[in-house]
Design a protein that fits this description.
Two copies of one chain form a homodimer. Chain A has six helices and five strands, in the order H-H-H-H-E-E-E-E-H-E-H. Chain A has a three-stranded mixed beta sheet with strand order 4-3-5. In chain A, strands 1-2 form a two-stranded antiparallel ribbon. In chain A, strand 3 and strand 4 form a beta hairpin. The termini of chain A are far apart. Chains A and B meet through helix 5 and strand 5 of A and helix 5 and strand 5 of B. Chain B binds a DNA duplex through helix 2 and helix 4.
Amino acid sequence: MTTANGKHSGHRHPRPRSAVVVDEIVADLAGRGYRDTEPRRLVIGAAAAQTRPFTAEDLCAALPCVGRATVYRGLRLLVETDQVCRVLLEDRELRYQLSHKGHHHHMLCAVCGASADLADCDVEETLQAAASAAGFQMSGHWLEVYGRCQLCATD
Amino acid sequence: MTTANGKHSGHRHPRPRSAVVVDEIVADLAGRGYRDTEPRRLVIGAAAAQTRPFTAEDLCAALPCVGRATVYRGLRLLVETDQVCRVLLEDRELRYQLSHKGHHHHMLCAVCGASADLADCDVEETLQAAASAAGFQMSGHWLEVYGRCQLCATD
DNA sequence: ATCCATGCAAACCCTTTGCAGTCCA
DNA sequence: TGGACTGCAAAGGGTTTGCATGGAT
């Protein structure tokens, strides 16, 4: 059984990156009044271990010892607290990924499934303008970009 | 029983607009080898009668005499043939609406549920640029804009 | 006469929920 | 200790599918 509680900050050796991420998220949740539990840490850890957008099922498969409901509840909590954001594939399948805070969009590779952040994109203003031109008061939007990543495009 | 087959083009009196839409779509489908059937016409008619983005359930409710499966199959056919496009609400509920051919996006009113087309919007170029800057070869995108329509914004 | 389309019901998938027991804080 | 959290299993909803019948071409 591994050390679960995030109280071992005195370690001399740096903790693995994923463990750090888990600690950070757990700390954030603690600040909001959510408890630090082993199953919850496992869910967060599994999410952090994913290399591309994942499904709830992926986490369940990676955590056979954690109840399905717990995985779903944990995932929902992470989304609600903005630790994880939703990603919508081209076929409308819903996936998740650790969120790099702040507003941004994703480019999804149709071949390998990789996801890249689309930053510094001034779509907002364009949309804002087009919306008000049509008498609309824009309050939000949803955008996903599909294509091929650099590696897959050269194949 | 109403005249179902689209062979009565010799009518002296103009047909109601919705009927014309149904005829057009049926004709398009016929050109692709799909049959002209009464249930299918009913589905198309019900879709055309909607004033805002609708769910499959809406059609089922409007067509108690048509089998659920038939409604779903008909709807899917319409999407596949580009007669109807999908609309994604802010809560990710999936809806549909007759498509005004050509690429465009929708602005959805969170209050009344109305949908307006967002045309003449050069988001594409912006995205295209941002994507290739990140080494991505963009092939498509999904965009929904949420807010309040003119009427609901003034409330 | 084909064989596509329909209707029913059951199957399906994914997610949520009820509840009793467990465990942080 | 008490309330939050967990796990199981069952319920839930929205959509699809299998199969025998019916209908368009």
